[in-house]
Amino acid sequence: MSVNSGDNLLIEKELKIVVLGEPSTGKSCIVSRYCHDDYTRQYIPTCGVEFYLKRTQIQGHNVRINIWDTSGSTNGLLKKYIYNADAIILVYDITDCVSFSSVSTWYNKAISVHYDNVPTFALFSNKCDLEHKRSVAEEKQILFSKEFKIPISQSVSARTGENIMFAWQQLVAECLGLKLSKFDLEQHLVRPVKAEIETTVNQYKTMMSNQQQNTSSTICVIQ
């Protein structure tokens, strides 16, 4: 008996997505923000691999995503981690040029593994809220994505949540062979928030204003 399109939408599709990159690039924070809308400034290194489960819906399709969040040092277990992966996310930190230089190494390691079906690759540049500390030009990410034919290339911020849902939904759609509509894209697009540098400037202005007020209060005005 054939299954119609309506029944197909009811079937939960399953994906395995593996996250790779250097230590302290924010891989775990990106995953935590996506799965739990949560963020912590405390740096806790991942030991080996941690597993996350995310259920989402895209264009009526129910999707179960098994996320493998790997440490920056896979200790020779990389092939086992990425076995049968549907997608691989490469992460680097825009404030750390070394982490970007290592992306090609991670890519080459991942692509050298034998796959029955080659996974979809994505490139996430994290910490886009720290634009004032950027040390990796955006053009480098664009050129890298073109050279290695990486279909999903996004700048994200685990701290603010900027582009997190948008980037992940793009990747899930790519894995399922779906074309996102303009509505789908806008629904998951998080508008940029003020960067830390703006907060610092505002704090500085407030501090200077308070100092001026304190100074003026000690001046005796003679009329």
Automatic annotation (TrEMBL):
Pfam families assigned to the protein according to its UniProt record, in alphabetical order: Ras
* Keywords, ordered alphabetically: GTP-binding, Nucleotide-binding
Q: Which GO terms describe its molecular function?
A: GTP binding; GTPase activity
Q: Which Gene3D superfamilies match?
A: P-loop containing nucleotide triphosphate hydrolases
SMART domains to which the protein is assigned, alphabetical: RAB, RAN, RAS, RHO
Q: Which InterPro entries match?
A: P-loop_NTPase, Rab, Small_GTP-bd, Small_GTPase
Q: Which NCBIfam families match?
A: small_GTP (TIGR00231)
Q: What is this protein called?
A: Ras-related protein Rab-28-like
Q: Highest lineage ranks of the organism?
A: Eukaryota, Metazoa, Ecdysozoa, Arthropoda, Hexapoda
